[in-house]
């Protein structure tokens, strides 16, 4: 008996898996992470980590999920019974609760901006006024909480019924539309006066900006951008049919995420410098700069509304995948409990997200290790849970799963070479654990 439904097509799986991160990982988070960490040098380190560490990790999670056809906890129990390895999945579920708690806050910001665009509050504003509007939006506690609740409501309603059919079909239409709209925005952004300075900042590494924290933050962004480290992709790949080529799927998902990240940077940074903003604006970069770019376009408000709706969809796709890992574990083989569990999980996540939602306003004076609650939740997931989870997944795949299973899953439906398998396995067994360990110790000041 099948534990869960399966993707109806390979392209549907690829778009859904890529959409799991494209929403906020590439469009929202990557530009401001690059902007606050040296621009081009952050991009370079991010690309290296994504290819050398992120891609092998993504394939490792695909193999775990597809080989077992089980959720994030029971996949590890199936492969390593009577052991403690399933705590990797437990870490993933806990991290997903925290991740969606602050992720839904940003999703709420998008909802708020869509409402403001329809009510005319985004019309006829200059660049500075967009910045003021964003600051006023995120400090408005009741408005932020209401928007966060609405965002989670949409997420729960979809996940409670199963997400594959609707999301897969919509992804095939809306993801290409998002890509096309990005190309339009890049064309306008690059033709703004002073845009070339932004291109240089983004594409030309300044190694004087390279610090030890750059490596940890780029590694965390790489994992965030690919949704690896918390077993989300274990869950998604468990819906795959056995004949799918996991190697090509990995390449496609990685390629799409890198492409969208670069496109986002080419939209944002030329406009940042051309319109007089600072690249280290932080989490509000997309919400301040993009509306200002649209304001420079004919029919700008139409394109802005369209972009916000598509961004909302991409963001929701990510939220679906995060909530799905929680629900799939708690539901197990009792699908009749899915609706109740989805609502209970969503309610808990909303409560967990209240500190993040209010951390820019009335709770801005509450900090942990110098972080406001929103930034602390982000750091806890992106720079702690994801690398630690990835480290243990790499060790599990490299040293616990029999090579015969790895080979069977790697080559099933694939024409990949034996050399590629050996390189991948070498990366999983040695490069990833050692790399993550060194970067982690260095960031904590324990290794220099």
TrEMBL record:
<comment type="similarity">
    <text>Belongs to the sodium:neurotransmitter symporter (SNF) (TC 2.A.22) family.</text>
</comment>
<keyword id="KW-1133">Transmembrane helix</keyword>
<dbReference type="InterPro" id="IPR047218">
    <property type="entry name" value="YocR/YhdH-like"/>
</dbReference>
<keyword id="KW-0769">Symport</keyword>
<dbReference type="GO" id="GO:0015293">
    <property type="term" value="F:symporter activity"/>
</dbReference>
<dbReference type="InterPro" id="IPR000175">
    <property type="entry name" value="Na/ntran_symport"/>
</dbReference>
<feature type="transmembrane region" description="Helical">
    <location>
        <begin position="342"/>
        <end position="374"/>
    </location>
</feature>
<feature type="transmembrane region" description="Helical">
    <location>
        <begin position="173"/>
        <end position="190"/>
    </location>
</feature>
<feature type="transmembrane region" description="Helical">
    <location>
        <begin position="419"/>
        <end position="441"/>
    </location>
</feature>
<keyword id="KW-0813">Transport</keyword>
<feature type="transmembrane region" description="Helical">
    <location>
        <begin position="144"/>
        <end position="161"/>
    </location>
</feature>
<feature type="transmembrane region" description="Helical">
    <location>
        <begin position="12"/>
        <end position="30"/>
    </location>
</feature>
<feature type="transmembrane region" description="Helical">
    <location>
        <begin position="380"/>
        <end position="399"/>
    </location>
</feature>
<feature type="transmembrane region" description="Helical">
    <location>
        <begin position="85"/>
        <end position="115"/>
    </location>
</feature>
<protein>
    <recommendedName>
        <fullName>Transporter</fullName>
    </recommendedName>
</protein>
<dbReference type="Pfam" id="PF00209">
    <property type="entry name" value="SNF"/>
</dbReference>
<keyword id="KW-0472">Membrane</keyword>
<feature type="transmembrane region" description="Helical">
    <location>
        <begin position="42"/>
        <end position="64"/>
    </location>
</feature>
<dbReference type="InterPro" id="IPR037272">
    <property type="entry name" value="SNS_sf"/>
</dbReference>
<feature type="transmembrane region" description="Helical">
    <location>
        <begin position="210"/>
        <end position="234"/>
    </location>
</feature>
<feature type="transmembrane region" description="Helical">
    <location>
        <begin position="254"/>
        <end position="277"/>
    </location>
</feature>
<keyword id="KW-0812">Transmembrane</keyword>
<feature type="transmembrane region" description="Helical">
    <location>
        <begin position="297"/>
        <end position="330"/>
    </location>
</feature>
<dbReference type="GO" id="GO:0016020">
    <property type="term" value="C:membrane"/>
</dbReference>
């Amino acid at each position: 008996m099948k534990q869960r439904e399966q993707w109806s097509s390979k392209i549907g799986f690829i778009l859904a898996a890529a959409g799991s991160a494209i929403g906020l990982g590439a469009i929202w988070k990557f530009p401001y992470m690059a902007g606050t960490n040296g621009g081009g040098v952050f991009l370079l380190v991010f690309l290296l980590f994504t290819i050398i560490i992120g891609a092998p990790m993504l394939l490792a999670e695909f193999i775990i999920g597809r080989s077992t056809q089980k959720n994030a906890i029971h996949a590890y129990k199936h492969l390593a019974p009577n052991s403690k390895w399933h705590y990797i999945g437990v870490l993933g579920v806990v991290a997903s609760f925290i991740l969606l708690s602050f992720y839904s806050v940003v999703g709420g910001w998008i909802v708020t901006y869509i409402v403001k665009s329809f009510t005319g509050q985004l019309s006829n504003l200059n660049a500075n006024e967009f910045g003021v509007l964003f600051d006023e939006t995120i400090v408005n506690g009741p408005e932020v909480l209401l928007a966060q609740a609405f965002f989670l409501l949409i997420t729960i309603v979809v996940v409670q019924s199963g997400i594959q059919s609707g999301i897969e079909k919509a992804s095939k239409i809306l993801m290409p539309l998002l890509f096309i709209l990005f190309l339009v925005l890049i064309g306008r952004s690059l033709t703004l006066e002073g845009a070339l300075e932004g291109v240089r900042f983004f594409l030309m590494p300044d190694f004087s900006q390279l610090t030890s924290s750059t490596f940890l933050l780029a590694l965390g962004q790489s994992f965030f951008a690919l949704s690896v480290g918390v077993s989300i992709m274990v869950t998604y790949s468990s819906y795959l049919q056995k004949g799918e080529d996991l190697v090509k799927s990995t390449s496609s998902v990685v390629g799409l995420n890198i492409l969208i990240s670069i496109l986002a940077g080419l939209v944002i940074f030329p406009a940042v410098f051309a319109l007089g903003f600072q690249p280290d604006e932080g989490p509000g970069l997309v919400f301040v700069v993009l509306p200002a770019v649209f304001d420079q376009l004919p029919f700008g408000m139409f394109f802005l509304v369209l972009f916000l709706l598509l961004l909302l969809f991409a963001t929701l796709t990510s939220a679906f995948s995060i909530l799905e890992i929680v629900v799939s574990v708690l539901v197990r083989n009792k699908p009749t409990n899915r609706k109740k569990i989805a609502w209970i999980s969503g309610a808990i996540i909303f409560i967990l997200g209240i500190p993040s939602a209010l951390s820019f306003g009335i709770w801005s004076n509450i900090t942990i290790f110098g972080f406001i609650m929103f930034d602390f939740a982000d750091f806890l997931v992106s720079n702690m849970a994801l690398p630690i989870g990835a480290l243990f997944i790499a060790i599990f795949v490299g040293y616990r799963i029999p090579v015969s299973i790895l080979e069977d899953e790697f080559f099933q439906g694939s024409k990949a070479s034996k050399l590629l398998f050996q390189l991948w396995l070498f990366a999983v067994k040695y490069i990833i654990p050692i790399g993550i360990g060194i970067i982690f110790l260095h960031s904590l000041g324990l290794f220099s």
